[in-house]
Amino acid sequence: MNPWPYGADWPQAAETMGLHAFMLLLFISMPCFSNGDQPMEEELITERNIQPPGSSFKINPEGAEVQEVAKKAVEEFNTRSNSKKYFKLLNVTSAEAQVTNLITYKIDAVIGKTKCLKAQDTDVESCVLGKKRRMCKFEVTFNPRNDKYELLHSSCKK
């Protein structure tokens, strides 16, 4: 009768299993001894970099997005005004945006009265400027869900 319950080669099998267990333990602990990934230096966040959600922030008045919104505001201003002549955008002096479910733009701009009559169907950009200038404040919303702009408020001073 064999004294070993697992067969005659049980001591050899136990030795092999011990070696496998040792190798597995060594393999698992390798990341602890390696110098692989070093911790990255984190950028400090200062109070001036943090914008509360929904707060307004200044944007570049010369940026393409602001220029597009300002032109749309002037187009709508032309539709609503009682003037017989068109106005066109001359300069955006400052701009702010506020992002909620809509994007609200507050734009300060200089517009100029052109010599083109509204009764004529013309491209306002090609119209010759007259002498009158106005400082205007426009508030425009953009709804990204339907890709529509809306002029909420406009006020101009001579």
UniProtKB/TrEMBL annotation:
Name listed for the protein in its UniProt record: Cystatin domain-containing protein
Spans traversing the lipid bilayer: none
One Pfam family recorded for the sequence: Cystatin
UniProt GO cellular component terms: cytoplasm; extracellular space; vesicle
Record domain Cystatin: where: 51-157
Stored InterPro entries: Cystatin_dom (IPR000010), Cystatin_sf (IPR046350)
Gene source species: Synaphobranchus kaupii
GO molecular function: cysteine-type endopeptidase inhibitor activity
UniProt keywords, alphabetically: Signal
Coiled coil, from the record: none
Recorded family membership: Belongs to the cystatin family.
Signal peptide: 1-36
